[in-house]
Amino acid sequence: MTTDATRDAGAPPFVTEGYKPPKATHKARVLPGFRLSLGITITYLSLIVLIPLAALLARPWEHGLDGVWQAISDPRVVASLRLTFGTAFAAAVVNLFAGLVVAWVLTRYEFPGKSLLDALVDLPFALPTAVAGVSLCSMYAANGWIGSLFAPLGIKIAYTPLGIFVALIFVGLPFIVRSVQPVLAEFDAEVEEAAQTLGASPMQTAIRVILPSLLPALLTGFSLAFARAVGEYGSVIFIAGNMPFVSEITPLLIVIKLEEFDYAGAAAVAVAMLALSFLSLLVINGIQLLLSKRGRA
Length: 297
Description:
single chain, MetI-like fold, Sulph_transpt2, membrane
């Protein structure tokens, strides 16, 4: 006879008490086994990332350590590195706040033309960098639509570091918006209502309730925007002016060295740029990891 115990255990209704369900012999996997997956991963990363980087790291040493140090410590190279990383960091900081505001408006409000505005955020992704550079240069030049408004005030945007700053803001904004927007969309509105019910002001709710949940996404967007700005070339060279010690970015200086057949010097500058980028991203990721641990605690 069938007992209640066998029914609770999920046995068929015609089986007696001694029934034991069969054990699963294997787990179904969508992807192939670990060894094959790991082999594909290592092979792909080696071909795309590790081998090119290894070749880059090996090239500058043709003239020895003194040659590498001489190429890196050149005042023109130092000035370009300072300009590249300084403007990239400043543009990423501005985009951090501007992108948060844009993501908040697109997520929390309904208004005519919202879909069009949402699509325009992705325009820097799809627009060729050369087209973006020409457009920004024509707008911010002294006779351009926006540049002509600042020219009477003695503010020159195009062909200055300020023009580089504007171009990097343009290319970096979508990274912040697209990193924060999904998190805001999934944020539970009941948490905000609970905070307001407990007497929190809108500013306290934003800083103590919403912002901690957005910090990981903000840091991710910041790191992406910063990395894109550091390596940006096409949209910058048209508006920068490319004057040594004034508005010359490091990627352009590498191209100049390549045109002069100074391959070792170009590789040395590239290695210095790579090291600084890696160090900057390592610091950002370390901060993000620290914040995530605090959030779990």
